[in-house]
Amino acid sequence: MRAMLLAVAWMSVGTAWAGGDAVRGQQAYEARCGACHSVDSDRVGPRHAGVVGRRAGSVPGFAYSDALRRSGLVWDARLLDRWLSDPEKLVPGQRMGYRVDDPQIRADIIAYLATLKARKP
Ligand code: HEC
User: Fold this and answer.
1) What angle do CA 4, 88, 64 make, to 5 degrees?
2) What is the gyration radius of the CA atoms in the chain, in angstroms?
3) Confidence at residue 105, expressed as pLDDT on a 0 to 100 scale
4) I need a surface site. Which of 53, 73, 100, 121 has the fewest CB within 10 A?
5) Does ligand 1 have an atom closer than 6 angstroms to the CB of 51?
């Protein structure tokens, strides 16, 4: 029973992401993530240009936690959804003290992140 509930929860994650709206996501990003992150420069958190498809903990010069740097993850929509729901559960020992409980807002933010291409300096 528990396994089945988990499977259903898992599938709804994929669906929620597919329904993400990048325009709403940009507003949510600026409101919720902007205090610590920006697209092109490192702040409290690392820059986000090109984050989808990027290895976790790999922006040169940013002082990541060892936990994230060594996680071996490569960010895709599903992992980002898990990270934003509960970073500490995905990567114990990480240092981002923020989570987004609403699945639709996560989906919107991830749709926006997917539009951010890495820019060469
Ligand atoms: C309170 C500050 C803070 C807020 C708010 C915050 N973050 Fe972070 N974020 C961090 C820190 C610090 C790290 C680095 C964590 C580590 O090294 O363990 C991080 C790391 C990340 C990473 C991993 C990037 C990489 O290069 O591997 C992603 C993705 C991310 N944040 C997305 C978001 C999103 C999306 C939001 C808004 C919903 C957000 N963060 C809000 C501080 C924050």
Assistant:
1) 140
2) 14
3) 97
4) 121
5) yes
Q: Which domains does the chain have, with CATH numbers?
A: 2-113 (1.10.760.10)
Residue 106 CA to its chain's centroid (Å):
8
How many angstroms does the Cα of residue 89 sit away from the middle of ligand 1?
A: 14
Tens-place pLDDT, residues 39-92: 999 999 999 999 999 999 999 999 999 999 999 999 999 999 999 999 999 999
Q: What is the DSSP letter of 75?
A: -
Q: Is the CB of 99 under 6 A from ligand 1?
A: no
Average pLDDT over residues 93-104: 97
The answer to whether the Cα torsion of 60, 44, 112, 68 is positive or negative is positive
Neighbours of 10 (CB within 10 A): 10
Place of tokens 């936690």: 65
Terminal alpha carbon distance of the chain: 51
Q: Is the CB of 37 under 6 A from ligand 1?
A: yes
Q: CA 109, CA 4: separation in Å to the nearest integer?
A: 28
